[in-house]
Design goal:
Number of helices of chain B: 11
Number of strands of chain A: 5
Order of helices and strands of chain B: EEEHEEHEHHHEHEHEEHEHEEHEH
Radius of gyration of chain B: 22 Å
Helix content of chain A: 55-70%
Strand order of the largest sheet of chain A: 2-1-3-4-5
Number of helices of chain A: 12
Oligomer: heterodimer
Structural class of chain A: alpha/beta
Largest sheet of chain A: 5 strands, mixed
Distance between the termini of chain A: 37 Å
Helix content of chain B: 25-40%
Radius of gyration of chain A: 25 Å
Strand content of chain A: 5-15%
Strand order of the largest sheet of chain B: 6-7-8-3-9-10
Number of strands of chain B: 14
Largest interface: A-B, 14 and 18 residues
């Protein structure tokens, strides 16, 4: 018991005296509380998303279906883009309240859509289903790029950041500094090694998933590879920036968590940000994962070409360049 | 002879600490300079400035008369006291890796033979003994056939055989005309290997010269050692005594006269040892005997 307590005390002293890690822990707790308060306060998130065409007000006075609980109704300006959202299950049902009888569109592959259809028919037996043009997309087709992207993000952030901090702490970086190796060469080498591993593993995962799920692939595999490479590079560069100076694995782990979790929630990995507040959508644009997933889904689901995803590719390339430039400038070979 | 490496008024100040405070040195080609000093004296910082790893607060380091630049790292080899290497690499893979970082390198077979690495070339470097590891680190420091080799306490923690083996390697390096800068806490090592010694304390060089020169300048006496039990309770008149834990040291400028006095005081000299002054005596005289951090 005495030995156990002595060990507990020694570990607690280590934590308390590692000032950078302690500061991180003290900072992270209130950040997490604030984050949870923001996410879970107010009304709970809607169960269903329904797009509404035209200008008719979405109130029960217009149509009793608008009283359905747990459902968010939002305005869709025109039919065609709304139809694409329906195909991708970004909305569960589309309505045109100005029509008589009421016209609606659903994606028959969507369970939520079918459930909403029965609710709608309970309140309006005359409502008439309209054909959805083009093939509908399974949720798995939409989700798999998100999950592969998530894997790339965690691998990029944690694999390289921790390694460099460990190299610095153990003195290996100091040893390398005694050779003609330049910081930019070291960083580039780490990036290339990491990139080969991460993209190779992601490609393997894609192939294995494709065997079971027969993923929808409308575009070019080369374009998808380019998206994966640029996306991985931007997140590796982000990790290099975090690990450019610090020597505490606890601190680097904390900072990488701080970067990764907002991306998990806000980059559209599991659900679409359609209908989310504009502030949230704007914040999501700051994350490389958002751009990588937008471009990957555009290639896989819509058959987008290079010109179509140029904006996302440019954002990823710019983030890579900025993170690398700052990371290389801040880079320190040895600890204090 | 012109200096291959020079330090001019090197200073390194950290907030509240003057780690190095005005060090000037010249190291001649083919010589071994020993930097000695208690812990915290400023040796490591001085060496790191000479290696080009730490930027001085003021002053400069010259290599062959010119300020050091990016090309300097091609011309030096460093053996750090504590060095981690990449995990899971064998000795051979480490040598190849470091060789690939330089433009000009020694042929690996020559390096392997020079540092006696043949037997464990394919062993994970983490599974080497202390002596084997130091020989591998020396080989890494020599991989680019450097003009100057920096050795930072290279034999700390080694057993006597491994230490002597390492000394032979360093002497072989010197025999090939290489310049060596050595930091050590072992005075015997410094005496054996160094042509020139700088003793540092509080960020300054407080003594400089060859080992013999330093001893000749600072001491003209010898030391007579007797067991404490032999001396206790005897009146030895005006003899200069220093008590150690197990023995008494008598400083003597005239050994014959001192021996006569000891005999006349009735001491048995059966266990008497007479030795010349050593670098350790000089080190303790110059830097004091109190424990340093």
């Amino acid at each position: 018991m005495k030995r156990l307590w002595a060990m507990v005390q020694a570990r607690l002293l280590e934590v308390v005296r590692d000032r950078s890690a302690l500061a991180w822990n003290l900072l992270f707790a209130p950040l997490l509380v604030v984050g949870m308060a923001v996410v879970f306060s107010g009304t709970p998130p809607p169960l269903f998303k329904v797009g509404v065409l035209g200008d008719a007000p979405a109130t029960p006075l217009t149509h009793p279906f608008f009283a359905t609980e747990g459902t968010r109704f939002h305005r869709e300006a025109s039919l065609e883009p709304a139809m694409v959202k329906l195909q991708r299950q970004r909305i569960d049902l589309l309505l045109d309240p100005s029509s008589q009888p009421l016209r609606y569109w659903i994606n028959t592959d969507s369970q939520k859509g079918r459930l909403l259809q029965s609710l709608l028919r309970n309140s309006d037996a005359d409502a008439k289903a309209q054909p959805v043009s083009g093939a509908s997309i399974r949720y798995s087709d939409w989700l798999v790029p998100g999950l592969l992207g998530l894997n790339i993000m965690f691998s990029s952030l944690f694999a390289i950041g921790h390694v460099i901090v460990r190299y610095r702490k153990s003195g290996y970086l100091k040893r390398l500094n005694g050779t003609p190796l330049r910081a930019v060469e070291f960083i580039s080498a780490q990036m290339i090694a990491c990139l080969l591993l991460i993209v190779g593993i992601a490609a393997g995962m894609y192939a294995a998933t494709d065997l079971f799920l027969h993923l929808r692939m409308e575009g070019s595999y080369l374009n998808l590879l380019l998206v994966a490479v640029l996306g991985s590079m931007s997140m590796i560069a982000m990790s290099l920036l975090v690990s450019a100076r610090i020597s505490s694995e606890e601190l680097s782990g904390g900072l990488l968590n701080l970067l990764s979790w907002p991306m998990v929630v806000l980059s559209g990995v599991f659900f679409s940000l359609d209908g989310a507040p504009a502030v949230v959508q704007a914040a999501a644009q700051a994350f490389p994962l958002t751009h990588m997933l937008e471009a990957a889904r555009a290639v896989m689901l819509d058959g987008a070409g290079l010109a179509d995803i140029a904006r996302s590719l440019a954002a990823l390339a710019a983030m890579t360049a900025v993170f690398l430039a700052i990371g290389a400038g801040f880079f320190r070979w040895s600890q204090d | 002879m012109s200096a291959i490496l020079s330090a001019r008024e090197l200073r390194k100040h950290y907030p509240g600490v003057k780690a190095v405070d005005g060090v000037s040195l010249d190291v001649e080609q083919g010589q071994c300079l020993g930097l000695l000093g208690p812990n915290g004296a400023g040796k490591s910082t001085t060496v790191e400035m000479l290696e080009g790893l730490v930027r001085p607060s003021s002053g400069e380091v010259l290599f062959r008369g010119k300020p050091i630049d990016a090309g300097y790292r091609e011309r030096i080899g460093i053996q750090f006291q504590y060095t981690a290497l990449q995990d899971f690499l064998t000795v051979r893979e480490n040598l190849r890796f470091f060789a690939s970082l330089y433009r000009n390198t020694l042929p690996l077979p020559q390096l392997i033979e020079a540092c006696s690495l043949e037997e464990y070339l394919d062993r994970d470097h983490r599974k080497l003994s202390g002596g084997q590891r130091q020989r591998m680190l020396l080989a890494i420091a020599l991989v680019n056939d450097p003009d100057i080799v920096f050795l930072d306490e290279p034999t700390t923690g080694l057993d006597p055989q491994a230490r002597r083996n390492f000394w032979e390697l360093v002497q072989a390096i010197k025999a090939r005309g290489k310049t060596v800068v050595l930091t050590t806490h072992y005075m015997e090592e410094a005496y054996l290997l160094c042509d020139d010694i700088a003793i540092m304390d509080h960020g300054h060089v407080i003594a400089r010269g060859s080992p013999r020169q330093l001893l000749a300048e600072n001491f003209s006496d010898s030391v007579l050692e007797l067991p404490i039990a032999e001396v206790d309770g005897r009146d030895l008149g005006e003899l200069s005594l220093v008590r150690r834990s197990d023995r008494v040291e008598i400083m003597s400028a005239d050994v014959n006269d001192t021996v006569r006095r000891l005999l006349s005081a009735g001491l048995s000299l059966a266990q008497l040892k007479i030795r010349p002054r050593t670098l350790e005596d000089l080190f303790l005289q110059l830097t004091g005997t109190e424990l340093r951090a």
